[in-house]
Request: fold
Amino acid sequence: MERNVVRRAVGMCLAVGLTVTAYGQGVYWEAARSGGRLGDKTEIEKMYYMPKKFKSESAGKGDVQILRLDKEVIMSVDSKAKTYWQMTFSEMSERMKKSSAEMDAAMADMQKEMESMSEGERKMAEQMMKSMRPGQRSEGPKIEVTKTGDKETISGYSCTKFTVTKDGKELLSIWASKDVKEFEPMRKDFGEFQKRMAEMNPMMPEGLSEGMQKIEGFPIETDMPRGLKQVVTKIEKRSIPADEFEIPAGYTKVKAPIMRDDHEEKEQ
Reply:
């Protein structure tokens, strides 16, 4: 459950950090996600933005995530169950630090056990440890963003391809367009979104949020690992009502998954 929340947070960070709008006015856009675990299916992600506020909604699933820079809070809403949880950025950061410390302690214990393992067992253990901490941070540059000469028209927009690599291995390829003219005015706001999400998520590779700031233009298509693809299909300037970024009336508050202990997880 905790891993799902982290993955969702990373996904939101990418979406927020690469999106644009104009001052004083919001924007609504839709993106089609396919490939990976979805197979032949396509999921539609609906996203809303006003200055200091961001909302992501999975169409048909009732899963809504809200980020509020003005209140420094993240909220998750289950529209089908009519429940929600919320945490301040500081609470989320502290919990993530605690989880990271617990993981480090478990890793240290495993390192000791590896001393008595055979070579084959040790290699398997090392591989498992690596998979448990895919975004583990270390010293030195990790993320590089490269603008390529590849160009393509996607969803009616002229796009240029950018590649995002970690230690020379490609993490993402992004087709971005400068045709969406509202990009530059709000770059600072989105940089703050990314910074906050990176602080709360120790799984995120160091330098990713900074690297994303080098993308020139609005990301129309993002190609991710395991064949997962997200393509923006619709963009609209829109004045979005304030209540879109609030918890609906009558919903029941529950404990955030990352705040539940092992006993509570088993009962779910």
Observations:
- The chain has two domains: 2-93+181-267, 98-132.
- The chain has six helices and twelve strands.
- The longest strand covers residues 143-154.
